[in-house]
Amino acid sequence: MNRRKTGTEWEKAASEYLQAQGMRIVERNFRCRQGEIDLVGYHQGYLVFVEVKYRRTDVKGSALEAVDGRKQRRICRAADYYRLRHGIGSDAAVRYDVVAVQDGRILWLRNAFPHVEPGRGGAAVW
After folding, report:
1. What pLDDT digit, counting tens, does each position of 75-107 carry?
2. Which residues of 37-72 are buried (b: 16+ CB within 10 A; e: fewer)?
3. Residues of the domain holding 9
4. Predicted confidence band at 56 (pLDDT cuts at 50, 70, 90)?
5. Into how many domains does the chain fold?
6. Among residues 92, 126, 123, which one has the least CA distance to residue 109?
7. 121 is a domain residue
8. Alpha helices (H) along 1-126
9. Predicted model pTM
10. C-alpha span between 33 and 79 (Å, rounded)
11. What CATH code is carried by the domain that includes residue 17?
């Protein structure tokens, strides 16, 4: 099975898992010049941007480690554009979650990292 198909299948599984936990998914695979966001939804009063990461094994690092500072900045830039494009103000409650899939298990890490301003460093430490 190719990597894109595998990723798509795990994104679908993550979406179903999040919906079962009460998240309302409003968009999948939002793409723009700034980056891509796997899932966008609403959960407990937050607009949630979700990165789904799959790793078959941890040989190349864990799924959580794959969401490094560079990836976080790209997600935040894409989220800023998403909010601008949809007329969602800067006062909206926003959260960045990661769904890590490894060894067939789904781990949902809520509020996985803070918003990273463009041009700034900052990376979550797992």
Report:
1. 999 999 999 999 999 899 999 999 998 877 899
2. bbbbbebeebbbbbbbbbbeeeeeeebbebbeeebb
3. 3-109
4. confident
5. 1
6. 126
7. no
8. 3-20, 69-85
9. 0.88
10. 11
11. 3.40.1350.10
